[in-house]
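Give me a protein, keeping tokens residue-aligned:
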Amino acid sequence: MFSRRSRRPKSPELLEAWGCLDSGDVPGALRQLRAAGETQPLSEVALVVRRAAAAAGFDDLTQAATALAADPERAKVLYDFGYACIERGVSYLAVPALREALRRSDGSLLALRELVSAYEDEGRHREAVTELARHEGSFKDWPDRYLLVFNAVLAGDLELARRQHALLSDPEDAQWQPARDRQNRVLERAADAERVSSLDLTDLRGWQYVIAGTVLGTLSPYGFGAGMHGRYAWLQDTPGGCLRGLLRLRALLEAAELRPGSVSLLPDRDSRILGLAAAEVLDLPAEPFVPGRTDTVVVAYDLDGLAAHDGGPEIVGQLFERVPGQVLHAHACCWTDPPAITADSVGLLHQSVVPPWGERLRQGADGSIGRDPADDRPEAEIAAEVTAADPAADPGDGEGPGDDDTRFAAFAGAVQGTWLRGDRARVRSAGPVPSSRFA
């Protein structure tokens, strides 16, 4: 046995992570481990992970890392370490260990499935597809071919997804039937969307619909060429932006020939403001949200904001199973860490957003940065400002493809047959462009 006090990693990158742990900075150590990449010696990575896991009180990961540091060549030890990393939310650390476990176990399906799970957590769907395809001769339809179809869609490869979906037998185990039904709906949505949408790797609106069943109202006019493809990073929202999103919601309802009877107001202030504005735009009465009300548009500014409100988690749960005619619209949705449920309509995708009436940053005449306080006027007064705003789109940096009303209306008309048959559970991917996340 080795001495835990004397063993230290040798590579410069891992020593930086070790130094973070010396100062008690566990998140910093994890960031250094990610930055170090996947070519570091696994036994040395395990030394760092063991210390970090012990500091966090993760006994399972501590034990798995201890075993890997002592014996990095056993497939079972490698698998256990990878499994523990996934369970503790550090799937990027699981990938190299599980790849090695798969190699040393001569293609164990258990190791393959855990490796695919790690790739999925990291948004690395193309690599999951490649690994699954390598083992097609030995894998099973459920779950392996299903996972191949699932990841092919998320990688943006509809041709492969359809080919493999056609080979997929109906599941004998009833627990897989909901997954089969979801996959059928995904490919049905793809057939609708591709009639008017390119579904190439830059088609954010198209892929948002295919994957999540959500119609995305507006696209960011900034950073298209840098890979954002219509997503916002940090955004200080405007009344005009809110109105533009509501007008797109109205166009979507018209395309689907839906005539709701009310707008349901959620209890958090942001949602109430936007809901009152929506009632004016849609020419509908506004009523407090009641679970199970049919033929209504439930309007949230941001579902995460709703979840943080008193009673919000309960309402989010009630909105998971929506009744006929109940449409959920969320103006702002985080694409790097999506909310617990998926909305039917979303105004925009962001990483961080400040509502128009929230506490806002401003730049002074001398270049200094200050903050303006949140707008504490009555909700109805702010809502009236939204409905009176100019909804014209920001021209942006000129790199994007444009997002005019005619193009949106064509998309809404093409998908109306499969809209509102989406999947309510959280959908992490906003398209086939992978995103990284730190633990």
